[in-house]
């Protein structure tokens, strides 16, 4: 089991993604997670060149603008554009090495991922180092397995998993928390396909983002 926690500090969480475009499937589960674990702030980290996925249709500036429009007026969210300034692939571990240096050794940091990302985490660059720098907060995703692919990976999960969210602010890193967040079947792929077909996306993403997409002529 994880080691005994120390005194609580403010937990700061980060949520990365291509955000091509950002939509309610990103925002609403993260807001529910914030309520569940007591987060005051979530920083969105738009990826520049995601190593495991096809390249974005919208460029870096367009995706950043859509994130800014989506979170305008919402005190929970901020955006950090550091990964958009990279000229190489965005590796989460390298970003968190930098963030840890900035925040100090004692600050509790967390990275929010989906259940799909947890199941494929062992394919990420230096994935086993990630818990040395942050906690993992896992959003439920529709249709994904609750068990890891191998007994070894399942043991790794169970060694780090906690059920008490208050522990997250008592240690700077090392825990995995599986959140009970809503299952929203919304994807950026679906939004892009709808746009290609001329179908409205108003129910899938904030109206300011939808207007920007229309003005920019994106996803046609």
From TrEMBL:
Pfam families, per database record: CTP_transf_like
- Root EC class: transferase
Where does the Cytidyltransferase-like domain lie?
Answer: 14-194
Q: Which domain of life is it from?
A: Bacteria
Q: What is this protein called?
A: Probable nicotinate-nucleotide adenylyltransferase
**Which InterPro entries does the entry mention?**
Cyt_trans-like, NadD/NMNAT, Rossmann-like_a/b/a_fold
Q: What is the organism field in this record?
A: Serratia fonticola
Q: Which CDD domains match?
A: NMNAT
Show the Gene3D superfamilies listed in the entry. Answer: HUPs
Citing just one GO molecular function, the answer is: ATP binding
Known catalytic reactions: nicotinate beta-D-ribonucleotide + ATP + H(+) = deamido-NAD(+) + diphosphate
Query: What family does the entry list?
Result: Belongs to the NadD family.
Question: What taxonomic classification does the UniProt entry list for its organism?
Answer: Bacteria, Pseudomonadati, Pseudomonadota, Gammaproteobacteria, Enterobacterales
| Pathway connected to this protein | Cofactor biosynthesis; NAD(+) biosynthesis; deamido-NAD(+) from nicotinate D-ribonucleotide: step 1/1
Q: Name one GO biological process term.
A: NAD+ biosynthetic process
Q: Which keywords, in A-to-Z order, does the entry hold?
A: ATP-binding, NAD, Nucleotide-binding, Nucleotidyltransferase, Pyridine nucleotide biosynthesis, Transferase
Q: What does this protein do?
A: Catalyzes the reversible adenylation of nicotinate mononucleotide (NaMN) to nicotinic acid adenine dinucleotide (NaAD).
Enzyme Commission number(s) of this protein: 2.7.7.18
């Amino acid at each position: 089991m994880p080691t005994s926690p120390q005194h609580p500090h403010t937990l700061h969480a980060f949520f990365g993604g291509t955000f091509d475009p950002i939509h309610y499937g990103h925002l609403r589960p993260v807001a529910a997670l914030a309520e569940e674990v007591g987060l005051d702030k979530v920083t969105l980290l738009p990826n520049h060149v995601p190593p495991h996925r096809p390249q974005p249709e919208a460029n870096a500036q367009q995706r950043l603008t859509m994130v800014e429009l989506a979170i305008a007026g919402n005190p929970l969210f901020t955006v950090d554009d550091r990964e958009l300034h990279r000229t190489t692939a965005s590796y989460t571990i390298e970003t968190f090495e930098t963030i840890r240096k900035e925040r100090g050794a004692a600050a509790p940091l967390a990275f929010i991922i989906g259940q799909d990302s947890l199941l494929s985490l062992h394919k990420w660059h230096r994935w086993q180092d990630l818990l040395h720098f942050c906690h993992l907060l896992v959003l439920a995703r529709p249709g994904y397995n609750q068990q890891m692919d191998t007994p070894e990976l399942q043991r790794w999960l169970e060694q780090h998993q906690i059920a008490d969210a208050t522990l997250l602010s008592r240690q700077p890193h090392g825990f995995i928390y599986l959140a009970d967040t809503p299952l929203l079947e919304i994807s950026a792929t679906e939004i892009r396909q709808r746009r290609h077909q001329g179908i409205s996306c108003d129910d899938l993403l904030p109206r300011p983002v939808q207007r920007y997409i229309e003005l920019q002529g994106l996803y046609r």
